[in-house]
Design goal:
LE_dom; mainly beta; signal; elongated; about 230 residues; LAMA5
């Protein structure tokens, strides 16, 4: 039986052969590089609906997919025999990609590298080395630095994070502050905090004591006094 589908489709929206196979009017045209690259186009069990220059029947996959699926970022260097059939294994992923099929971006990069697309370096203004590998939202490492690109200071923090410098929290003298790193969703990647204090008069120096309990940091500011041993 020959299946031919003539209804309109959006085959080109499918980036992988597996996605392409979900649409009965589409087929996968492999590019022959043995890296998994190809194009999802309208077709039938006989081949593409439109003529393809230099087309070879072994390039056409209408009900299955090529054994090697590395999204153009590697080549298969190993063959395994499994219950489901022959499985080819990708070699080392290139172009800042990772995963079984080199289908995701490596730490420090983001994007959708499937079918030959690229990964872009995280844009975090020097405030983080990593970001969400799909959206590119940065994992700001300093408490008080916020924004998708770590480019703004949170309320009560001061600084210019776009210049690669941290945001600072101003401490009052003769007061006790408690900071909890990773206490909120926006702080879940925070590993550091920057503080500053301006004495309200000349003379005695300002002493700072910091004690720690798990993820909680307590900061004690004394005016004209020395830090004593503090228990948290």
């Amino acid at each position: 039986m020959i299946c031919t589908c003539t209804e309109s489709s959006n085959c080109s929206a499918h980036k992988t052969c597996a996605e392409c196979q979900l649409s009965p009017e589409c087929g996968w045209l492999d590019d022959g590089s043995r890296t998994g690259l190809g194009t999802c186009i309208p077709g039938s069990s006989r081949g593409p609906l439109e003529p393809i220059k230099d087309f070879h029947s072994e390039q056409w996959y209408f009900i299955d997919c090529p054994a090697c699926q590395c999204n153009g970022h590697s080549m298969c260097n190993e063959t395994r025999h499994t219950v489901g059939g022959i499985q080819e294994v990708c070699g080392d992923c290139q172009h800042n990609t990772m995963g079984r099929h080199c289908e995701i971006c490596a730490p420090g990069y983001f994007g959708d590298p499937r079918n030959g697309d690229h990964c872009t370096a995280c844009q975090c203004n020097g405030q983080s080395d990593t970001c969400d590998n799909i959206t590119g939202v940065c994992h700001c490492r300093t408490k008080g630095v916020i924004g998708a690109n770590c480019d703004r200071c949170d309320q009560k923090y001061y600084g210019q994070p776009k210049n690669g410098t941290p945001c600072y929290y101003e401490l009052s003298v003769d007061f006790i502050f408690t900071f909890k790193l990773k206490n909120e969703e926006k702080d879940k990647h925070a590993t550091e905090i920057y503080l500053f204090s301006i004495p309200h008069k000349n003379g005695p120096s300002v002493s700072v004591c910091i004690c720690r309990t798990n993820d909680e940091r307590r900061v004690f500011i004394f005016f004209g006094e020395q830090c004593l041993f503090l228990k948290s």
